Amino acid sequence: YRRLHTKETQLSKFNQTEIKAMLGSYTKVLFVRDPLHRLIATFLQGMGVSPSFSSFVQEVLDSGMHNGSVAWKPLVSLCRPCLIQYDYVVMFGFLRQELGHLLRRAGLPAGSLLPELTDSQVQWTYRWLTEQMFSELSAQQKQQLSRFYRWDLAAFPFSSSFLSE
């Protein structure tokens, strides 16, 4: 696209005609992850100053939708899946098979470019960790988180998410 190399990188900086032309000229890939897993990863990376996961979650809930960090904002507010027709949605936990498919579709040799991904081990570890962290939350926090991420849970197949239960 002709304005690809400008300093403007956010779609909101372009007019509707330019946005449509740009989005039509790219293969659009969206990487998604269970919202609770995103919160846990953010907490473990020390992006919150809270001493416990429960107090970190309360900070997230108190910050609300508009003042929150990109690290924990609902995905639908960040990548607009209802407005942008993504060509691929890649779920965390299925990276090896989905990235292999994407590379083959792009005409690249998938085997040599992919790092060693152990999705089943990652899923098991996250399931255990999620159970531990989720048990720290009050019933009210669990309900508030489910409400906070309701559009993510509706837009993407996070069927095994603790927030869906």
TrEMBL record:
Molecular function terms, GO-annotated: sulfotransferase activity
Pfam families: Sulfotransfer_2
GO BP terms in the entry: carbohydrate biosynthetic process; dermatan sulfate proteoglycan metabolic process
Annotated membrane topology: Single-pass type II membrane protein
Keywords, ordered alphabetically: Carbohydrate metabolism, Glycoprotein, Golgi apparatus, Membrane, Signal-anchor, Transferase, Transmembrane, Transmembrane helix
Enzyme Commission designation: 2.8.2.-
GO cellular component: Golgi membrane
Localization (cell): Golgi apparatus membrane
Domain of life: Eukaryota
Keyword Transmembrane: yes
Family that this chain belongs to: Belongs to the sulfotransferase 2 family.
Name used for this protein in its record: Carbohydrate sulfotransferase
Organism: Oreocharis arfaki (tit berrypecker)
